[in-house]
Amino acid sequence: MQRLSRLQYLEVHSPLTNDSSTRTFIAWELAILFATAVSNMPSYTPTQKSAIQQFTGFTHTKESVAAKQLKSHNWNIEQAVDAYFQSNNPSKDASSGTQTLNKLFDTYRDNPKDEPDKIGVEGSIRYLQDLGLSLEEPVVFAILTELNAPTMGELTRQGFIDGWKRLRASTLTEQRSTLPSLRSSLPSTPQGLFRQTYKHTFRLALTTGQRSLPLETALEYWRLLLSPPSLNWNTPSTPWLEYWIEYLTTKWKKGVSKDMWEQTGVFVAKSLEDESMGWWSEDGAWPGCLDEFVGFVREKRGDGGEGEGMEM
Questions:
Q1: What own/partner pairs with CB < 8 Å and gap ≥ 24 does 104-108 have?
Q2: Model pLDDT for residues 147-199, shown as the tens digit of each residue
Q3: Which of 4, 150, 274, 295 is the 20 to 30 A CA-CA neighbour of 177?
Q4: Distance from the Cα of residue 244 to its chain's centroid
């Protein structure tokens, strides 16, 4: 910075600034300084860039602060966000926030006497509507994931308080203000908020006693989570979601296990990174339905090539 200031001073005050050689000298000096600055800028992997974007969305901090916090927590987004809020949230404010959240939670309980720490179906619907949400919005799943909801129609006191404290939102107004950030992060973070939301949605979708989802139910959730305004599972030459639905309804016709659901999420992220499926390997530990789906897609695209091995 000191060197650059001298150059600026020279350019403004020197009687030689009209001399072409001096202007050339200044231009070269500035070019060297710029190249040095660029070479010293940290480089991040796509996953790390996604984590930085998600961190700044949650905390409204600078990217440099996000990167520093994430590095110190081995790029674990949840740990980094928790640590940031804890270090920037005095105990007095935390206590006040907890009291406010408890009072807010209490207003939505369906059965305060018998279930004092639970919001049921009716209360959950009222609460989401008071947030200004449509129940068909994908961001609803992100909210329920942040609050660690056990099912679609239930919120627990502990999950409610911990989730909103992590997002630093104690009142309905503050909670509404987090929605734009969550909406923008959901489709842009395949390895961040979307991945967490996608995995938790399987748990949300299960009914009591179920271990797998009926195919029709899973298809509806995939349609919501894998198309705009959520993550868009399409690439320039492949309508992945359309092919996936066609394959399942014509070739699969079985239920969807937790492993199949989660591995499909991994497949989605990989296919968005490289639609040619150069990462695919028949020796990989993929569910059989995804092995068959790869062949289905290749037949549809007319490519039939074999991908290179991928480490799982």
A1: 104/170, 104/171, 104/172, 105/155, 105/157, 105/160, 105/161, 108/155
A2: 999 998 899 999 999 999 999 999 999 999 999 999 999 998 777 889 999 99
A3: 150
A4: 22
Distance in angstroms (rounded) separating the CA atoms of residues 125 and 149: 13
Length of the chain: 312
pLDDT one-digit tens code per residue, 95-108: 668 999 999 999 99
Query: Which residues make Cβ contacts (< 8 Å) with residue 11, sequence separation at least 6?
Result: 17, 26
Quick one: tokens of 155? 């919120």
Query: Which two three-digit tokens encode residue 23?
Result: 């202007």
Mean pLDDT of 239-243: 97
